[in-house]
Amino acid sequence: MKLLFIGDIVGKPGREAVAAVAPRLREERGIDFILANGENAAAGSGITGSLAEILLREGGLDGITLGDHVWDQKGWEHEIGNFPRVCRPANLPASCPGRTHLIVEKNGFRLLVFTVLGRNFMGPKVDCPFDTADRLLAEHAGRYDGAFVEIHAEATSEKQALGWHLAGRAMAVLGTHTHVATADTALLRGQTAFQCDVGMTGPHESVLGREIAPVIARFRDGMPKRFDVATGDVRLSGTLVEFDAAGRAHGIEWLSVRP
Among 45, 149, 206, 219, which residue carries the largest CB count within 10 Å? Predict the structure, then answer.
């Protein structure tokens, strides 16, 4: 079986790339599950209910994960509970609305899906990502055949540490947040697919999806600037994982596809 995880969807260009490319890849590559991080789908920051509906419908996504920008769009905290295929980071405070995980079933295979936020160089105050991952795997034992874990974090060391912590227990541990894909795809202990960051889906003629000039200006003088979403060189970035019925990964491939 195959799973495609699409990296941070940035703004309208990213959403359009998902709609154009994801269904095509599903057919061409025989993909069973398609998941995507949608936390930057709304003008580069956060997501809304209407945009979640569009991504799920037009992109044919089986699930949407979120990150540290989960609450950036006003009103989403009241909408998130209406989406059974959307989950927020699992290690946010328990009082936060939304699902901490998904269990998605295809062709008799039950896939556990959840995201943890890193704690190094990140803003939100969250529970330990290692303990949270251990708890979810234990709580749902017997209810899933394989586990997909997203680590939404800044530090590559923290991502690698979680990958090794879950090696042999999770089918895949894939990273997001930096918007820059890393050249470290691997099969940890021969059965857990890993990559520090799967990259960004959106405009690559940019700085992390934003217009170049104001970002350069901000670095030079430190003055506040408006960072609009860029439009040039749009690509879908994602990672394809091949796995067996026992939830063991056998292959991992990074993809960068233009619409």
Answer: 149
Residue where the block lists tokens 């905290």: 77
Q: Is the pLDDT of residue 244 over 90?
A: yes
CA distances from 145 to 34, 142, 179, 232 (A): 17, 8, 29, 40
pLDDT digits (tens, 9 = 90+) for 114-127: 999 999 999 888 99
Q: How far apart are CA 165 and CA 151, in angstroms?
A: 12
The tokens for 39 are 């936390």
Query: What's the DSSP call for residue 45?
Result: S
Are 66 and 25 in contact, with CB atoms under 8 Å apart? no
69 is catalytic: yes
**Catalytic-labelled residue, pool 69, 101, 177, 204:** 69
How far is the C-alpha of 232 from the C-alpha of 209, rounded, in Å?
9
Residue carrying structure tokens 């026992």: 246
| Structural domains of the chain ordered from first start | 2-201+236-254 (3.60.21.10)
**pTM of the shown model:** 0.97
Q: Distance from CA of residue 12 to its chain's centroid? A: 17
Q: How would you classify the pairing of strands 33-37 and 2-6?
A: parallel
